[in-house]
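REQUEST ID: PR-0412
SUBMITTED BY: lab tech R.K.
PRIORITY: routine
TASK: structure prediction, single protein chain
INPUT:
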Amino acid sequence: MIDKLPPLVIGDLEIKNPIVQGAMGIRVSTHPLVSAVANAGAAGTIASVALGFGNKENETNFLKASTDALEYEIREVKKSSNGVFGVNIMVALSNYEDLARTASREKVDYIVSGAGLPLKLPEYVDDPSIKLLPIVSSARAADLIAKTWEKRYDRLPDGIVVEGPKAGGHLGFKNEEIVSAEPDALEKITAEVIEVANNYGSKNGHKIPVIPGGGIFDGKDVARFFRLGAKGVQIASRFVTTYECSVSEEFKKLYLQATEDDILIIQSPVGMPGRAIRNEFIEKLLKDGRHPFICKYKCLKTCNPKTSPYCIAKALHSAATGKIEEAVVFAGSNVSRINKIVHVQELIDEIIGEAIEELNR
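STATUS: complete
OUTPUT:
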């Protein structure tokens, strides 16, 4: 019998409750939520994407506004929490290096990076104590990143986040892979990535914990992945419907009212499919094919405003600020199971308690 879960250990970093709050942008995973998660003994993650979106300075100096906003979020978390927290930085961002160097300079505990292969991430992080966690969707990607980092930088990932096809937001799969994915797809990918992590770790005396995410909803899910060999889990969507998450009430209401039939896969200007909740904006997009826009930011490497179907930054910012009729609202595959707003501490205690009970069966 056990009375607690083992902590998630990433190098010399110990996370008492082995849950990493997945980053959600734009302006969903900001300091109020991240601080609350860290204070509850889990790991809070700031989403760095387009934090400066919407202010006048951002229209004239995108780089400065973005780094200033990220500095502000990091410093606010440090003011209100002594817990573990980090920053998620998407490889697809045009200011990827700038944001990585900012997070390094501000000395966050870890940097999570996906939406592309973060092959150069160690180059931008001067502080070796900052843990680097690539996000992958396959064992092949995990192997390539570990091999590249080892050869170029004499460094291995400190941990690996595995995102499966049931995750919300941007997905590292083709549309047909998402549609045809088996119910246990994340389990299979996780097992394969654990093998890669163990192979690199064993020959270097370096433990590389694997942290699966995407469709992990409750303690039973957590227990299932712990039995598989995972050392922690990543959960995102459930943190939206917490009192501490600073998004609009309209955003949270859409989560609470969503049914399984409301969830669909859309194509994002990031160049990846994304899982979102059906609403007026998406219905118009499906009908018209495109929402033309004028870009003042060029925040994505892959986005061509002349051909992109819509501005993803504006659509996600509209969600956070309550303009749901103009918004894309990303969500995980289990969003329809969410039925109430709770405090972060209550949510984490519930998930951990369920996991312990399940592991003791």
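NOTES: The first strand starts at residue 8 and ends at 10.
REVIEWED BY: pending
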